[in-house]
Amino acid sequence: MTDQAQSRSNEPSVRFTGINKFYGDVAAVRDLTLDVAEGEFFSLLGPSGSGKTTTLRLIAGFETASSGQLAIKGRDVTQTPPHKRDIGMVFQNYALFPHKTVEQNVAFGLRMRGIGREETAQRVRDALALVELSGYGDRRPSQLSGGQQQRVALARAVVIRPRLLLADEPLGALDRKLRQTMQFELRAFQRTVGITMVYVTHDQEEALTMSDRIGIMHDGALVQVGTPREIYDRPRSRFVADFIGTSNFLEGRVESQDRGEVIVAIPGDVRVRVARHESDGETGATATIALRPEKIRILADGEHADNRVDGQINGQTFLGESLLSKVQLKSGQELLVRHDDAVSRSGFGVGALVVLGWNADDGVLLASD
To answer: Model-level pTM?
Structure first.
């Protein structure tokens, strides 16, 4: 392989460099710089209005950047029209033609590209087999379930053999159980085909389940990028910690730093030890600690923990596989604690006095939003 060919093979599938998108004075996307690797399942996650769908539309060419550069497979496509970008797209409403059969829907993109009849027929058969819909070619969309329609839309997107597959909330119209099933099927499909996928969702569980990496968007900006575990375990800001999963927040002031730990004083005359990681934790600065409910334990007599606080259980919610207890501290603050139901059966029900504990590495000292 030549040096030039090697360089091309190492190019990211998608590269944003300083992309901005304005609608008048409103910034829908702000200073977006991001690489999506070849073969990666990359999810854009954020609340409504965060800029994730606009970002997807910029890749597709349905929107044009106000400034910056967008490259696909090393080629600048910032001003390239959609039909010349060689991209497949799956929408939330599937956008199937109701008057056409499944086979005709899947073949549509091939016919628009002038592909011959025999090759079109073979590629449609292959695409339907890939999404496990062989034998459904003569049916109309109205004769299919929601999950089957989603598979037809997926087959139509990949039959053209695109460089890149985009998906905009493709499972949003499905009920919860079917959506969970389709999450696994879609991820398995992406791995089988080996295609790069950029996936937009507002569903945090969906992003955590399916993605190689996640980009969190807020007010048009990309605020954190990482693997699902990095995003969940080490959020960089209160927004991310609050948006992904459930977090308790302890507010205080940095009192000291010692041996790689930060000591934070919180109300109730309590000192909390937090492992430093990336935070500076300057002495005297205000501090916010994020603490996941499942990281907190109800301590037995003599059990050790880096941090210990006294409290009283004043509410419990049964979640099936676990129990969520609401524990009020002496300061008045309430902490959510997720634990096995056996804990409540051991006498730690509503009204019980408990000692909560967690390790220094379980809390995250957050940067200011």
So the answer is: 0.86
Maximum Cα interatomic distance, the chain, rounded to a whole number of Å: 78
Dist CA 238 CA 48 (whole Å): 18
Non-local (6+) Cβ contacts of 273 within 8 A are: 261, 262, 263, 306, 307, 360
pLDDT digits (tens, 9 = 90+) for 326-366: 999 999 999 999 988 666 556 788 999 999 999 999 999 98
For residue 323, count other CB atoms closer than 10 A to its CB: 20
Asked if 196 and 37 touch (Cβ cutoff 8 Å), the reply is yes
Residue 194 falls in which region: left (phi positive, over 0), alpha (psi -120 to 50) or beta:
left
Q: For residues 27 and 262, what is the distance between their CA atoms, to the nearest angstrom? A: 37
Number of helices (H) and strands (E), helices first, in the chain? 10, 20
Tokens of 16: 């944003």
Structural domains in the chain, CATH included, are: 3-239 (3.40.50.300), 246-365 (2.40.50.100)
What is the spatial distance between Cα 164 and Cα 223, in angstroms, rounded to a whole number?
24
Q: What is the dihedral of CA 181, 316, 305, 287, to 10 degrees?
A: 80
- pLDDT tens digits, 172-195: 777 888 788 888 888 888 898 889
Q: Is 225 left (phi over 0), alpha (psi -120 to 50) or beta?
A: beta
Q: What is the layout of strands, in order, in the sheet containing 75-76? A: 26-36, 14-23, 67-72, 75-76
Q: Put the strands of the sheet holding 248-258 in their side by side order.
A: 270-275, 261-266, 248-258, 286-291, 364-365
Q: Residue 206 is encoded by which pair of tokens?
A: 């969906």
